[in-house]
């Protein structure tokens, strides 16, 4: 089975791979209902972009392959990672700041509300969510503000899950989820009152490409607010340890290339936005760091339910997931590549924590830009 080439092929492939009719249950139910050949194929498809193991000596050709095939690569990544993300993190695929006394899901929702406040979203507004995942933030921001939210995403499986979850809570008329490439959005110029993106635009090979599209579809005077994944000024590309960590983040999170905060900010200006504010939210000296759940530091859990979430990232929790997923794969119930997916995601967790601790990476560089009136 060769990788899909068009939207129609993408959808057909996604329906075969994920069996859209039976998207219920937990991680084990979901992975055991995949089409085995299609899953193995998509894992191999993703891995082929990362054949050169050493980032210091990686060929320009391999890097270029990731940049020019970013839609295929990102789609493959989310085809394999989505079920694991939901199992380990819930339906809002992003990080957040944590306050003592506040549980994990409250903190995640607050991070979304904070963005909505930056945009001054009001009931009746038409708002775009760029790279909406399975629609967790869109549902939350819709309920928080009363605005109509359109989510755009290139992954059919995530779109189908977003549509289903919105309908389940009666938001089908206040939300819609559209399949599309954020570098060529299927919307008219000047269509939205406000646009936000949460840890999604880092999948673009060139930030100006996606920011430029946001600029085009935003109404004059409208605001774009977003959390960007970036390397910070502390990152030294000539330091092999820094390179290993950042390359690990790119590889295990489906990102062609991470850019510096200064590059992201300049890209926002280059496409025509007036910068309202730019701040690395990870630099607030929080007593509980943004990466704490990935550290498996169970002592920082804030309520009983948090213990369950964080448990999955402890050494023992990871061992259990690996044993279950690997065991099911060995006996032929889960598709080949399931175990490898868990290992890739563990690498993601480890490298994000290392990058966060060294301060060379941030998942929450918050930029707010305004499209000029004229
Ligand atoms: C990839 C981008 C741009 C954003 C996603 C951010 C986070 C939601 C993910 C980054 C690393 C992910 C991991 C998991 C869940 C989602 C993330 C935190 C797991 C906890 C899922 C369950 C696995 O067993 C371990 C994963 C570690 C990494």
Automatic annotation (TrEMBL):
Coiled coil spans: none
Domain of life: Eukaryota
GO cellular component assignments: endoplasmic reticulum
Pathway(s) served: Steroid metabolism
InterPro entries: Erg6_SMT_methyltransf, Methyltransf_11, MeTrfase_SMT, SAM-dependent_MTases_sf, Sterol_MeTrfase_C
UniProt-listed GO biological process terms: ergosterol biosynthetic process; methylation
Ranges for domain SAM-dependent methyltransferase Erg6/SMT-type: 77-372
Family designation: Belongs to the class I-like SAM-binding methyltransferase superfamily. Erg6/SMT family.
Protein name: Sterol 24-C-methyltransferase
Organism of this sequence: Rhizophagus irregularis (strain DAOM 197198w)
Species classification: Eukaryota, Fungi, Fungi incertae sedis, Mucoromycota, Glomeromycotina
């Amino acid at each position: 089975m060769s990788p899909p080439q068009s939207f129609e092929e993408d959808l057909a492939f996604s329906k075969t791979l994920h069996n859209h009719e039976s998207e219920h249950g937990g991680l084990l139910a979901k992975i055991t209902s995949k089409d085995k050949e299609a899953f193995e194929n998509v894992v191999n498809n993703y891995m082929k972009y990362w054949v050169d193991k050493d980032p210091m000596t990686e060929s320009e050709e391999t890097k270029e392959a990731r940049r020019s095939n970013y839609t295929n690569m990102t789609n493959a990544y989310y085809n394999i990672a989505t079920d694991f993300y939901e199992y380990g993190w819930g339906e809002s695929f992003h990080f957040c700041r944590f306050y003592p006394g506040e549980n994990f899901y409250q903190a995640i929702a607050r991070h979304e509300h904070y963005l909505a406040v930056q945009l001054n979203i009001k009931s009746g507004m038409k708002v775009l969510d760029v790279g909406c995942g399975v629609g967790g933030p869109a549902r939350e921001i819709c309920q928080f503000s009363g605005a109509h939210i359109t989510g755009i995403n290139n992954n059919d499986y995530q779109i189908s899950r977003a549509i289903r979850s919105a309908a389940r809570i009666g938001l089908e008329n206040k939300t819609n989820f559209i399949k599309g490439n954020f570098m060529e959005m299927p919307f008219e110029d000047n269509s939205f009152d406000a646009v936000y993106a949460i840890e999604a635009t880092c999948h673009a090979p060139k930030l100006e490409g996606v920011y430029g599209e946001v600029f085009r579809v935003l109404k004059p005077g409208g605001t774009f607010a977003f959390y960007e994944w970036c390397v910070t000024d502390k990152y030294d590309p000539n330091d092999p340890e820094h390179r290993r960590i950042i390359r690990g983040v790119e590889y295990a999170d489906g990102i062609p290339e991470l850019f510096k905060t200064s590059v992201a900010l300049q890209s926002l200006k280059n496409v025509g936005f007036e910068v309202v504010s730019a701040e690395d939210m990870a630099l607030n000296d929080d007593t509980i760091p943004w990466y704490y759940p990935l550290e498996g530091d169970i002592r920082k859990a804030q309520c009983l339910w948090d213990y369950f979430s964080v448990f999955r990232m402890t050494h023992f929790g990871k061992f259990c997931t690996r044993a279950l997923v690997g065991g099911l794969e060995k006996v032929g119930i889960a598709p080949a590549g399931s175990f490898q997916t868990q290992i890739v995601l563990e690498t993601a967790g480890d490298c994000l924590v290392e990058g966060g601790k060294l301060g060379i990476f941030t998942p929450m560089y918050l930029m707010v830009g305004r499209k000029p009136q004229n």
